[in-house]
Here is the input.
Amino acid sequence: MSLTFNAETHRYRMDRKHVSGVTTILNKALPKPALPRWAAKEVANYVAEHEDDVATLRAMSAKKLAAALAQTPWDKRDEAGVRGTEIHALAEKIVHGEAVDVPERLTPYVDDFVRFLDAWSVEPILTEKSVGNRALWYAGRPDFIGRVGGIFGGAITLLDWKSAKGVYGETAFQTGAYARAEFWVPDDDADGEQPLPEVERIGVVHVTPEGTRVYDLGDPDHAFKTFRHIKYVADMLPSFDDLVKVPAPEPTPLEIVA
Here is the structure.
């Protein structure tokens, strides 16, 4: 199989070699200034809202207490990640018209998502399939490619489902990279590599308990051009790390005089 995806490790292999996923590339090279502030806020909120738990934790050593508190933002992130995975799985089935059993806690997310599909005349072509680009050496799994009405006018559109608290413009780089992949593969590799549909538009769909909102992410070619620059930075970063691995030797007295 030319391109494979391991769902447990979320890693890709293309032509039997490791290939970076689009989100991994973006995480390497794009700064996330809001992330440290979010993490600090989550720790502060935990301390303020769980006084009894913190009092119990104080029995630990200072080092263990600090480690336990530092872990709280990532525990919350992982919890949100599990919910996002469940929503993605439900969305894929719903898009294809399959019947689903929706847990009560996810009903607010799903109800308006179904309304969105009807209101925007969403017609799937591909969902959750691995795509690859050998020229730039990357891979990924777009959530949806198909025809979408509304502001997209029935064009073939690549959409990304997001269920986190917010959505960000940098999703354009992710969707633009997917849109300009060279091929896609069925999960069972029954027919080998297939040409990707000609994606005309990209967007992000924010699925929340309060409703489903759609954002147009602009020209996929422009987003892809920017992604190529980001990938160049991600590829170059390790070579600059090498510059500070071995310190320069002390100069000899003769060299100082010279």
The longest helix spans residues 62-95.
